[in-house]
Every structure is written in structure tokens, then in C-alpha cells.
Amino acid sequence: MSFLALRTVQDELAKLEAAELIVSRSNGYQRFYRANPKHSLYRPLKEIIRTGAAHLKTNPRPLPQPASAPHAATAHLIFFSFALGRRFD
Predict the structure, then answer these.
(1) Would the N or C end of the chain have less CB density within 10 A of its end CB?
(2) Domain range holding 80?
(3) What is the pTM of this model?
């Protein structure tokens, strides 16, 4: 979960896509992002993410919700899905 504004996340994803580090596709309603396996940094980044994911707690504490947070999610982000080998394309 991130407490970043949706526009901030969209801007960062646009920068990563412009740098060709990630690629995206749309089903007309949602946009899906994944690492670009054709980029020269794909393998080094994959290893960094795998190393980071190996140090995650199995049951991390949930992040506290700010008082102003809406109850319904407006954006869903998947972290470490690349490192854990899950595909979402």
C-alpha cells in the first residue's frame, strides 16, 4: 500500500515507461505494468528485487491508515510480483 497520490504514481510509471524499464498494456478499463525483459537493466534489477524480497517478513504488520484515507481503494499496486515470479500480463 502506498500513501502517494494516484497522480504521483502515474507520473512515476510514465517516467519508467519512457525509459523503457517497464512496459504496459490496457484491457480498456485497467492498465497493467511489468518489467521490460528486453531492457539491459532487466537482469540486474531482477536480482536486486529478488534479494530484497528474500528479506521481507512473512507476515508484516499492516500499515496504519491515515485519518483521511478513503475506505475504497482507487488504485491497486503490486510490489515484488516480479521478484516472486508471479505473472500478471
Answers:
(1) C
(2) 1-57+75-89
(3) 0.58
